Amino acid sequence: MGIFVIAEIGINHNGDINICKDLIDVAKDSGCNAVKFQKRDIDLVYSEDFLNSHRDSPWGTTQKDQKQALEFSYEDYLEIDNYCKKIEIEWFASAWDVNSQKFLKQFDCKYNKVASAMIVYTDLLKIIASEGKHTFISTGMSTHDDIQNAVDIFNKAGCSFELMHTVSTYPMNDKDANLNLIKTLKKTYNCNVGYSGHEVGLAISYAAVAIGISSLERHITLDRSMYGSDQSASVEPNGFHMLVGAVRKIEEAMGDGIKTISDSEREIADKLRAHL
Question: Scanning 80, 109, 207, 244, which has its CA 20 to 30 A from the CA of 34?
Fold first, then answer.
């Protein structure tokens, strides 16, 4: 299989299951392999003082109003699960706490994801690794020691994984991409490495593909001007179609690195060298 392309819906659905389905449709039509979400138990992830603090949003005036509105219920995820099965696209999610990982386990998704923010959460990593599902581990905001700890946990559990080079700024400045780190991660940890991008535009993702990534994750949105902290670092529908199409072309164009002369090239050679 080629590069595994993930459309990160995250919280860009804004708590609306219809927007969510529209995003899943775009991902499917674009040729993505999977869509991904984020799951939080807000009472575990955030303090009571934070949840009660002021934040204006379409759903109210507190952080809790906003955070609650962005979390799908069991019934919502059941609808997502059924819908993805119907149109034949994989889905999975990154859990931000132990309760959320247990919640996600009910749906028996094929994959797991460790968000960059959670790579230092050893107890959560052990639970994820114990499930034995292929796991994408994002490496933003982490040190080599953090990454080594995660790699050790998954190796000890015998759970397949790949790292994902990530820079956790939204949107990321192009100059911060440091794509050569992909090669370093491959060599250091002897594993496949993908790229989870938060930049504006597609050029850096194309470059990552040419370097030799195993997976590519980009945030997807219906409209970058929609409400939400991740929208500005996301790719709109037309852009996602371009992205996946270009990824497949680049994969094919990279070839096997063996110097040969094709049959069509021989015909040209015969014409251009006829006088020799």
Answer: 207
Domain residue spans of the chain: 4-272
Distance set, CA 120 to CA 37, 115, 116 (Å): 20, 10, 8
173 DSSP 8-state letter: P
Q: pLDDT category, 77, cuts 50, 70, 90? A: very high
CATH architecture of the region 4-272: Alpha-Beta Barrel (3.20)
| CA distances from residue 186 to 163, 181, 183, 233, 243 in whole angstroms, order as listed | 9, 9, 5, 26, 24
Which pLDDT belongs to residue 217? 98
Residue 90's identity, in one-letter code, is: E
Q: Which helix (H) or strand (E) holds 112?
A: strand 111-114
Single-letter amino acid, residue 221:
T
The secondary structure of 201-264 as a DSSP string is: SSHHHHHHHHHT-SEEEEEB-S-TTSSSTTGGGSB-HHHHHHHHHHHHHHHHHH--S-----HH
Which residue carries 């094709």 as its tokens? 262
pTM: 0.96
Phi, psi (rounded to 5 degrees) for 137: -115, 110
Residue length, the chain?
276
